[in-house]
UniProtKB/TrEMBL annotation, chain A:
Catalytic activities: L-glutamyl-tRNA(Gln) + L-glutamine + ATP + H2O = L-glutaminyl-tRNA(Gln) + L-glutamate + ADP + phosphate + H(+)
Name the record gives this protein: Glutamyl-tRNA(Gln) amidotransferase subunit A
Species, as recorded: Streptacidiphilus jiangxiensis
Gene of this entry: gatA
One Pfam family in the UniProt entry: Amidase
Alphabetical list of SUPFAM superfamilies matching this protein: Amidase signature (AS) enzymes
Automatic annotation (TrEMBL), chain B:
Subunit structure: Heterotrimer of A, B and C subunits.
Keywords: ATP-binding, Ligase, Nucleotide-binding, Protein biosynthesis, Transferase
The keyword Chloroplast belongs to this UniProt entry's keyword annotation: no
Pfam short name (any one): GatC
Organism listed in the record: Streptacidiphilus pinicola
Entry function: Allows the formation of correctly charged Asn-tRNA(Asn) or Gln-tRNA(Gln) through the transamidation of misacylated Asp-tRNA(Asn) or Glu-tRNA(Gln) in organisms which lack either or both of asparaginyl-tRNA or glutaminyl-tRNA synthetases. The reaction takes place in the presence of glutamine and ATP through an activated phospho-Asp-tRNA(Asn) or phospho-Glu-tRNA(Gln).
Catalytic function, reaction form: L-glutamyl-tRNA(Gln) + L-glutamine + ATP + H2O = L-glutaminyl-tRNA(Gln) + L-glutamate + ADP + phosphate + H(+); L-aspartyl-tRNA(Asn) + L-glutamine + ATP + H2O = L-asparaginyl-tRNA(Asn) + L-glutamate + ADP + phosphate + 2 H(+)
GO terms, biological process: glutaminyl-tRNAGln biosynthesis via transamidation; regulation of translational fidelity; translation
Keyword Nucleus attributed: no
Protein name: Aspartyl/glutamyl-tRNA(Asn/Gln) amidotransferase subunit C
Enzyme Commission numbers on file: 6.3.5.-
Underlying gene: gatC
Amino acid sequence: MADLTRYTAAETASAIATGEVSAVEVAQAHLDRINAVDEKVHAFLHVDTDGALEAARAVDAKRAAGEELGPLAGVPLALKDVFTTKGIPTTAGSKMLEGWRPPYDATVTRRLKEAGVVILGKTNMDEFAMGSSTENSAYGPTGNPWDLSRIPGGSGGGSAAALAAFEAPLAIGTDTGGSIRQPGAVTGTVGVKPTYGSVSRYGLIAFSSSLDQGGPCARTVLDTALLHEAIAGWDPMDSTSINAPVPAVVAAARHADVKGMRVGVVKEFGGEGYQAGVMQRFNESVELLRSLGAEIVEISCPSFTYALPAYYLIAPSECSSNLARFDAMRYGLRVGDNGERSAEEVTALTREAGFGPEVKRRIMLGTYALSSGYYDAYYGSAQKVRTLISRDFDRAFGDVDVLISPTTPTTAFPIGERADDPMAMYLADLCTIPSNLAGNAAMSVPCGLAPEDNLPVGLQIIAPALADDRLYRVGAAVEAALNDKWGHPLLEEAPAL
Amino acid sequence: MPGITREEVAHLARLSRLELKSEELDHFAEQLNDIVDAVARVSEIAAEDVPPTSHPLPLTNVMRADEVRPSLRPDEVLAAAPAAEEQRFRVPQILGED
């Protein structure tokens, strides 16, 4: 039998539906793969062997009973450890939640289960999704399957690495400033940040509520679309959930045609600070789209150069408020409760012991930005920049259907290189942040290897809010053309683990 | 903009309920200074007449129907608590002894 871990999600679902393989065989193949390679990759924080096999058996039983299976029934998935899973450890990469078993499922978790998706386990991430390398995990870093000494991106490095290491064909991430797209770019996988509000945040442990958005990750554009449809949609449990139909992303992924589309190249993303090989692959992608019939236009979005500073005021401000809930009283870690200390002292001792340095930095930065003397200069100004960025997008989308840029300025950097240099680390999200601030939709799709280091480069595609289908149309066209050119998917060039 | 001093970090840590160690204060002061220097650029284009955006969606007062529905089970919730007693969260003292 062919190696089941090499199947796409679409192929897997179809093989299960026709009875070519059982869901249990598929789950077992992936659990075996995790056993074989995850000691080196460390994509998973928790592998739920029993739960995965049980879910797979349920799919096989449904099929045996003649019931209709959903489009992803029996397909294994790696879930970022920031979504709650009832009875299964959920840490958000933090010591603060070590050993916590949530009493409820996130809406995303529930929808996956209802779709018959087999959740293999929970993936490693930067603590509370704050970081661009997964080095901020309290449980140790994850290696990039292309080069284990390099970062897999972050904060969703575990989810992206699990895909690139063929430990799972599907994964879920969350994207607050690029945490789906940047890991996708540096691991040669596909990741989508859907329109803000289209995937429920209920049960997503909050970092920055006006920016956080769950989304799909996979090795192909079509698989990403199938997962997108499975998790998106209105949820009364999330008051910021959009009550509108989910765009037809699967149909768009199957309609890989950009003829006549107007594609804007963001002028501000490129030049100094961008790796030569990244720009080379990006420029080739622009020419590729032109050759496929797209009309290429250069678009200037002058306020985008202020997106990074605005983000590092808004996100820490919201985080300083959101993470106040970790007070050592109702769940999670409690330190120093000796019967004499006050609740407030125990809270402060617990937060000192339970949070890592990046989380502490951001909590204090946010507290500073929101304090009375500085509010207008920092948080207030950042909110105005947010308006200007949205206006730049509105202007651009008045002229073009999608915008494109490199997803990241560089390929995967070595583990440790930026670990104690926050500003250098923050630059990894330079091109991804504007979409979070505006709340629109964006994808990273692989566009080749940088010649100087043979590491993956991502092409970012940005579409207006609720036009997520355009991402899939363009992404699928790029993917198909590049696969034809290379004769195989990019990941086939990844070194064997 | 004024720089962030060691004393200011200590104050921020108190407000943030973080019992920072002495050696952390200097390290964070230096890093927070670098970050604040870099992000202060936002004021360059934040003109008077630009309205602020706090959220990507123009939502106000999203209501749900006022209906009785099941809540989480108390025993399952308390099972995850650091300490529980008589179906309640047990917490350290919140009022002074005297």
